[in-house]
Amino acid sequence: MPDRRSGPIRALVVRIVIALLALAVTTSIVYIGRDGYLDNNGTGDISLLDALYYATVSLSTTGYGDIVPVSATARAVNIAVVTPLRLLFLIVLVGTTVELLTERSRQSYRIQRWRSRVREHTVVVGYGTKGRAAVETLLGDGVEPEKIVVVDTDRSRLDVASGLGLVTVSGNATRSAVLRIAGVHLATTLVVALDRDDTAVLVTLTARELSKSISIVAAVRETENVHLLRQSGASSVIVADETAGRLLGVATRSPAVVEVMEDLLTPDAGFAISQRPVEPTELGGSPRHLPDIVLGVVRDGTLHRVDSARVDALERGDELLYVRKATPPDED
């Protein structure tokens, strides 16, 4: 189903076309009835350029008076046709300006109000296929929509994100001013989901300059660019094309494995991979003996496999990477 709000640009184009049509119609009317007009030289030699000039200054209400209708027919046409066209032109012009200013004021007020009360949120740069999937996963994990900020240059994408209750920021995320508006310096996580690896590197560099503590998760297309993202400050780097290729290869031999992986990566159905802190009653025990299916243990920011001797005894501050049963959307 087409997005009914994907039309801000289309609406602007339509208004420009209407204004140009009004200008063209007025020019044609004046040129056809040019015998009823006089210029400042007192001659009736009105060219097509003169007609366009008259239509422009007339519709814009400038009215220099150097070309005027003198015949009764020309004046009647101005009253009956040109004046309504002038009103139409002004309505389009003023309406577009007022709507633009109103939308900017509303967006600015919303962002200012949000920035005054939100901390430890997630910023998603790029709302294409990867960005939307990341947001869906966050929402499926119970993250509140107002805790997610989407940054993109595509107005239609931002309209879709706004429809989900997400906070949106329009602009180029390689600019520090845009990331500041998104509150990167107050956020806990930045998701970089862009289509270009070089742009992802620039966004990561800019974000890391603004915040030394933020966790940056970035997606790249080429494996050779992983080290660039890590050197730029990315905490985790995912090679999107390579990961998809591996799943395709696995699917040719073991399609059930791919189904399990998709199930684990889908937060609102079946099973899901999650992370939680170690409970006091679990301290000193082995992660392999817990009721949960534990895949790994995060200790001091480093992930250890569940069979690693380093995490054979759980310590305070450890976090478990485990498989949990996902809660369907219609259940509490």
TrEMBL record:
Q: Where are the transmembrane segments?
A: 12-32, 79-101
Which terms are listed as keywords in the entry?
A: Ion channel, Ion transport, Membrane, Transmembrane, Transmembrane helix, Transport
One of its Pfam families is TrkA_N
* Domain of life of the source: Bacteria
Compartments (UniProt record): Cell membrane
Q: What is this protein called?
A: Potassium channel family protein
Start and end residues of each RCK N-terminal domain: 119-239
Example GO biological process: monoatomic ion transmembrane transport
Q: Does the keyword Kinase apply?
A: no
Organism the protein comes from: Pseudonocardia nematodicida
Classify the main location: membrane
How this chain sits in the membrane, per its record, is: Multi-pass membrane protein
Lineage of source species: Bacteria, Bacillati, Actinomycetota, Actinomycetes, Pseudonocardiales
